[in-house]
Structures are given as C-alpha cells and as structure tokens.
Amino acid sequence: MAINEYLVRDSDSLATALRVIDANGLGLAFAVDRDGRLRGAVSSIDIKERLGQGQSLAAPVGGAMKSAESVPADSDTETVSQRINGVGHIVALVDSERRPIEFASPARPQRIPVAEPALLGNELKYVTECITTNWISSQGSFVRRFETEFAARFGAPHALAVSNGTVALHLALKAFDIGPRDEVIVPDLTFAATINAVLHAGATPVIVDVDPETWNIDPEAIAAAITPRTRAIMPVHLYGQPADMDAIMALRERHGLIVIEDAAEAAGALYKGRPCGSIGDAGTFSFFSNKVITTGEGGMVVFRDDRAAERGRRLRDHGMNPAKRYWHDEVGFNYRLTNLQAAIGCAQLEQFDGFLQRKLAIAAAYRARLGRIEGLRLPAEIPGMRNSHWMMSIITELERAGLDRDAFMAQLGKAGIETRPLFYPLHQMPPYRAYAGNRAFPHATRLSANGLSLPSGATLTDGQLDYVCGVIERCVMTRTLVQATRTA
Predict the structure, then answer these.
(1) Buried-exposed string 119-139: b where 16+ CB fall within 10 A, e elsewhere
(2) Which of 82, 113, 241, 288 is the most exposed place for a label (fewest CB within 10 A)?
(3) pLDDT in tens, 338-365
(4) Which of 291, 324, 359, 414 does the annotation list as catalytic?
C-alpha cells in the first residue's frame, strides 16, 4: 500500500480517520497538516476513548491524536530497530521536511510468516558428517538412527523413513494390501494428500463430514458410511487436534477394519496420554519445512503389526527381497529417505521437546489474548487430549462486524502478518466430487469458509506474537466501530 493510505489530515473528522484505519489494517493513521508534515497519530483506541467521553465522530482528528514516533527515512536498519524498541511500536519514516514517506514496525518490511523451519541445533554438523564420509544417499547410518529414535519417541515398534508424508500414506495402504474393490473412509476437511494416497493405491475413497468441535472426522458419519467393501478408516489429526480415537477404534473392532492415522500435522499430540499416530494399525507423519520437525521433505510410517512393517520395508525399496539383492518379489516403489535428510531429522528430534513447548506456549498466548474477542472461535480444549498446535487456527464469526474471513485475512496481510485459509473441503474440488455420494457436509463447509491459520512457528518471538494479537484486536474493534457508525 502507498503511504497515503495510512495518512489523514489533522483537520479531517474522526469518522474519516476510522475509515482509513479500517482500510489499512494497521490500527492507526498518521496525522499530517495541510502541507503533509507529520503532526501525530490517531488509533482506533484513541477514537473509541473519545466516543466514550461523548465526543462526536464529526470532531477533528487533531483533538484526538497523540505524538507519533518518527525517524529520518534514510536511517540505517539498526537505528530504526532501536526506535521500534521491541513490541508493537510503529514508527513513521520521514523526509527532511518531516513528511511521512514510509513506516516501520516489528513486521514491516519483514513479514511474519505462518511458519518457518527452526534449524537451531546439530543440523549442519550432521549434514557435514554425511558429506565428509560420502554417505549421502539412503544407505547411511542416520537413516537407521532416525527411525530408531522416532519409533522410541512415538511409542511404535516399527518406523520406516520415507521421502515425504504423502508416500507415507500410500506405503501404509499398500503394506496392508488395500487396493481395488476396497473402500477407505476419509474426512472431508483435510489436505488433499489424504485422499490422493487412497486413489493412488487404487482404492475408492469415501468422504464423510467432520465434527464441528474438533474439526476431525465424525465417528457417527464413519459408522453411517461403512459398507461390505470398507477396508480402512483414515482419521486425520487436523492442525494437531487429536481425533476421537476411542470411537474410531471401536468401529475398527466391530467391523474388522484397518485404521491408518494421518498424523502429518500432529507430531507431539496426545490422545489420552498416547502419541497420535501410534494408536491405529499404522500412523504417518510429514517432515515438510513447516511441520513441528522437518527434514525439508520427508515422512515416516509407524506400524504396530510386524508383517505389515516388513512388507512396507520391502515395498519402500522397489519390492526387493532383503535376503537376495536385486531379486524383486513384487512391484515396489522408491520411497526412501536420504541420509542427508535423516541427519537433519536426527538433529530436529534432539530439539523436539523445545519446539513443542514453544508451540504450546504460543497457543496459550493466543488463547489469553484472542479468547475474549467476540467473533473469534479458537480450537476446542478437550479433556484428555493434547493438541500439538501445528497451526494455531481459528474460526471467524465476524458477520456482525461486517468482516468476513477473506477481508480479515487481507487486513492482517496489510499489517505484514501472513495467514492461510483452512483447507478446502474435498467434496467441493473437481477430482474428488464423485466420492462424496449423496452425503451432506455442513460442518466441513462452514469451517473451511470461515477458518484461518495464524503465525505458529517455533521461531515466532514474543514481540511478534504480541504484535499479531494487537493487530487482530485493533482490526476487530475498528470494524465494529465502523459498523456501529453505519447503523447509528
């Protein structure tokens, strides 16, 4: 946005200032005189205070504005950073005549990302060891170490490292010989990898709706969708929130099914004290760069069943007989993880507890600040479950304020805050519509249309977190004031 979109005249009305603040998403506007020189700043909070004192929206900005921080526009980065001084301060960058030409804040020009990798430990050391020893492909010692340590941490007897989270799902399905003529029940609200893996296995996905509180697959919808062809259920622990595994495992026992947990987003989540991904017959994880731990690209399959684990191991390596090199017992895949990636994974596992605690702390801070804002609904806190909060995702219910989800995201984007919408429901997208049958999906549809994810990475600082919450508070309050003036 041009700087003019953050400016008001000191002679403009408070109503005009409110409209500017609402449009720019910054929570304030810089006030200038008739010659464009900086005089101060006015925020939505200042205007609310004035209205509370009985002042009219027709009153001039000059009576409500406060002093504005400023530095010369040609100042070096260190000078600007010192003036910003930590949390939430916004500084005007002015020319020699004190005319604003830009501004700086904790998030500008550097955007606050939704998530980014935290490579803070032994990653470089371990990767360097791979290179200096020439063990860079899938046969090095870090692969075996990563599998062993991952299995121990996540409570599984077997773990197979693979090249990404999507092939982890596919390998799990093939290890149980799930394919043509089989049906696999999947949730409507999930990333497309879940259903893609089923289709790649040759099986038929059956899409069902989700629970409105957990956002995860609804056990009652699963039960209604089971047919004689159903072979498996694939629950997804969406955004780190555990699915209702007791109910799902009861359906497994009653109908003789296989449960493959898609725990790509749930490393560190617990269901009644048990790690998500370790409860079903198999569980899969992703190590994409924005996950709790990363290998850049990569994934893991954990198995409880010895035979399935052994078949998965063969299929991962072209279906080759482990005792007879280059003899292929069946058609397999090249789903192996490299030693370089596994080295990064080992370093990440060493920091896992710290990453998880930081994510839990970020979620707690969001709850403390945003939980009291009318029109925002945070993830449910369910007794006996620990959400790993891969992404702190919220549902917007801001219709009364005249602010839909996309407009809200745009406001945050203007303030330098990256967000992302929730996944589209599978049943709405062309490749998957045929697998929705005649079922209705009211919950997935509503959640998807109104949900967004906030910055949640372990590298998010307290200052950035405070800034994000402050911008959200001001955006909602400003729009509420604007709507009130329109209906008054």
Answers:
(1) bebbbeebbebbeeeebeebe
(2) 82
(3) 999 999 999 999 999 999 999 999 999 9
(4) 291
Per-residue pLDDT tens digits for 141-182: 999 999 999 999 999 999 999 999 999 999 999 999 999 999
The pLDDT-based confidence of 87 (bands split at 50, 70, 90) is very low
| Structure-token pair, residue 97 | 């005549």
Q: Alpha-carbon distance 278 to 270, whole Å?
A: 10
Q: Residue 401 in contact with residue 477, Cβ under 8 Å?
A: no
| Dist CA 92 CA 36 (whole Å) | 13
Residue 48 is a catalytic residue: no
Locus of tokens 């939505």: 44
Host H or E run for residue 246? helix 245-255
Determine the pLDDT at residue 142. Answer: 98
What does the radius of gyration of the chain's CA atoms come to, in whole angstroms?
26
Which amino acid makes up residue 134? N
**Predicted TM-score (pTM) of this structure:** 0.86
H-type alpha helices, 3-76: 14-24, 44-52
For residue 1, the 8-state DSSP code is -
Fold of 352-487: Aspartate Aminotransferase, domain 1 (3.90.1150)
What is 317-375 written as a DSSP string?
A: BTTB-TTSTT-BSS---B-BPPHHHHHHHHHHHHTHHHHHHHHHHHHHHHHHHHTTSTT
CATH architecture, range 3-104? Roll (3.10)
Q: Domain residue spans in the chain?
A: 3-104, 123-350, 352-487
- Helix (H, G, I), strand (E, B), or coil: what is residue 297? coil
